[in-house]
Amino acid sequence: MNSNQLVNESVFLDLALSLSGEIEEDLIIKKALSLYMRKLDCFSVAIAKCSVQKNKFEISILPHSFKRHRAWEELEEKYLGESYFDDDFIDFHTDDFIFYIYKLRNYGYLILGKAAPFESKVIKKLNLVVKNLANTLVLSSDKRKKKV
Predict the structure, then answer these.
(1) Residue 47: enclosing H or E segment and its boundaries?
(2) What element of type H or E holds 74?
(3) Mean pLDDT, to the nearest integer, of 92-106?
(4) How far are the Cα atoms of 21, 39, 75, 80, 100 from residue 83, in angstroms, in the given order?
(5) SS3 of 23, please?
(6) What are 39-70's pLDDT values in tens digits?
(7) What is the distance between the alpha carbons of residues 72 and 97, in angstroms, rounded to a whole number?
(8) pLDDT for res 83
(9) Does residue 138 contact residue 23 with C-beta atoms inside 8 Å?
(10) pTM summary value
(11) pLDDT at 4
(12) Is pLDDT of 125 > 60?
């Protein structure tokens, strides 16, 4: 195993384990945004939580200013509007960026903004890590609902 493979494996392990002990939904989101941005070299990371109303989302995004960017508005209109998609993952290309949109089952979406594409093996491995994030978010959301 070469050093690049080792670094990649350690990144996935770090992403999977760094949030496992958290129980507060807001804290999980805050940590996940920062962690995914830093570890995966993204220029923007967002979590879109499905609200009670169909096709409405609560958006948490880093950096916050990117929410006003033309590329984000295009993505939001196309994928967070009326056209809900069934795949676990899609990628969306604009003139300048690539967005990787992972479904967080029973929760919403994780959106990773990159200037350069991920390797295909990274995309596949991220799918497993994202499932872990989805489970963590669903459990924390359920706990919060039970408290209310």
Answers:
(1) strand 44-50
(2) helix 70-79
(3) 91
(4) 34, 30, 11, 7, 16
(5) coil
(6) 999 999 999 998 766 667 888 999 988 988 89
(7) 10
(8) 52
(9) no
(10) 0.86
(11) 46
(12) yes
The CATH homologous superfamily to which domain 3-147 belongs is: GAF domain (3.30.450.40)
Residue 148 tokens read as: 């209310």
Q: Are 101 and 114 in contact (CB under 8 A)?
A: no
Q: Yes or no: say if 45 and 113 are a contact pair by the CB < 8 Å rule.
A: yes
Query: 62 with 39: CB under 8 angstroms?
Result: no
Helix (H) or strand (E) holding 35, with range, is helix 25-39
Peptide bond into 63 cis (omega under 30): yes
CA dist., res. 124 & res. 113, Å (int): 16
Alpha-helical regions (H) of the chain: 3-17, 25-39, 70-79, 120-147
| Number of other residues whose CB lies within 10 A of the CB of residue 22 | 18
Compute the distance between CA of residue 42 and CA of residue 40 in angstroms, rounded to an integer. Answer: 6
pLDDT higher than 80, residue 129: yes
Token pair listed for 121: 């093996």
pLDDT reported for residue 74: 87
Helix (H, G, I), strand (E, B) or coil at 24: coil
Residue 100 pLDDT greater than 80, yes or no: yes
Provide the CB-side half-sphere exposure for 50 (13 A, CA). Answer: 17
